[in-house]
Amino acid sequence: TETAHIARGCTLLYVPAEKITSVEETLANKDLVQTLEGTLIHWTRQINEAIAYQEAVELADNAGPLAELEFWEGKAADLSSIEHQITDQKVKIIVQVLQASKSSYVEPFLNLSDLIKQGSLEATDNLKFLSLLKEPCMVLAEAKPKVIPDLLPGILHRIRFIGAHSGFYNTSERVQGLLTKISNEIINRCTANISLTDIFDGNVDSSIKDLQDSIDALDKWRRLYMIAKEAAGGIWASFTDSSIFAYSDAFLKRCRDLLEICEGQKQFGRKIGSDRARVPSFGGSGGPEVMKGLIEIERAFDKQLTPLRSLKYNILDVKATKWHDDFGAFARATKDLEVRTQNLISTAFE
Fold this sequence. Notes:
Blueprint: H1 23-27, H2 30-56, H3 65-86, H4 89-100, H5 106-130, H6 134-140, H7 148-165, H8 172-193, H9 196-201, H10 204-232, H11 241-244, H12 246-268, E1 271-272, E2 275-276, H13 287-309, H14 323-349
Antiparallel strand pairs: 1-2
Helix pairs in contact: 2-4, 2-5, 3-5, 6-7, 7-8, 7-10, 8-10, 10-12, 12-13, 13-14
C-alpha cells in the first residue's frame, strides 16, 4: 500500500516494482524517470506528514510518565523504520537516478532524510534513558497513596541521572515536564483512592484516612523534590517549582477542603464511621432546649451539605474551578454554625 500508516506508528514508503539495474539505463527511460520522481514526491509528503504528526501530538494535561515513555517508544519506532527504509539500496538507487536527472525534488528529500536520521538518533537515545523509569513508574501507576512516598526517592534519582547523562533529554523544559508528569501520576493515584460517595454519605472515618494519606503523599513529594533540586543543581536550579506543582498544590487544597467537610460531619452531623452518634442528654430545665438546638444545628449542616452532594462536575478535578465558589458558600455557612454551637455549649454549661 502507498498509505502512510501514521496512526499505527509505522510509515511505509512505497517502492516501485520496476527493477533498476543501472542509473544510465534508467535515465534513458523517460517514463520510468517520471514515475520515480512521482514516487520521491510521495515519499517527501509521507515523511513530512509523519514529522508533522509527531510534532502535533500533545499528551493529556493529566498524563503520567508512562505516557511520556509511550510517546518516545512510538516516535523511535516510526523514525527508525523510516531511516531503515531510506537507507535501503532500492531507495538509494532511485535517489541516484533522480540526482543524475537533475530533479529539483531530490534536495528537499535529502534534507528530510537528514532530519529523520537526527530525529531517530534523538528518539532512540531518549527512549534508552527513559526506559530506566518504566519499572518504578509502573509500580507508581498502581500504588496506594500511603506507599507513594517510599517510591519517590528512586524515581527522582533516575530522573537526575537522565538529566545528567542523556544526550538529548537534558534540557530544563524536558526534565521539568517529566517531573510535572510525576505530579500528575501522584494526583491520579490519590484520585483513584478517594471516594466522594463515602465522604458525603458513607464512612467518614475511612475517608479522613484516605484524604490524609493523599495529603501526606503530596507533601512528601514536594519535600523530596526540593531535596533533589538542591542536590542536583545545574538545570534543576532553573526549574519553575510553581509550574511543576500547579496541579498538585490545587489538588492538595481540594483534599483539605474535603477533609474539612468530613470533620464537619463529625462535629455537626454526629457521624462516627458510617453511623450517627446518639444525641447527648442534658439535665435541668434548660436541657430539652439544648438538645433541640443541637438537632437544629445538625439539620442546618445537612442542608448546607446537600448542594455539594449533587454537584454536576467532578470535585476531584482541579480544573473544575467552580468548586471555589461552591465550597466557599459551604465554609461561610459552617462558620455560622460554629458560632451557634459555641453559644449552645455556653448555655449548656450555665
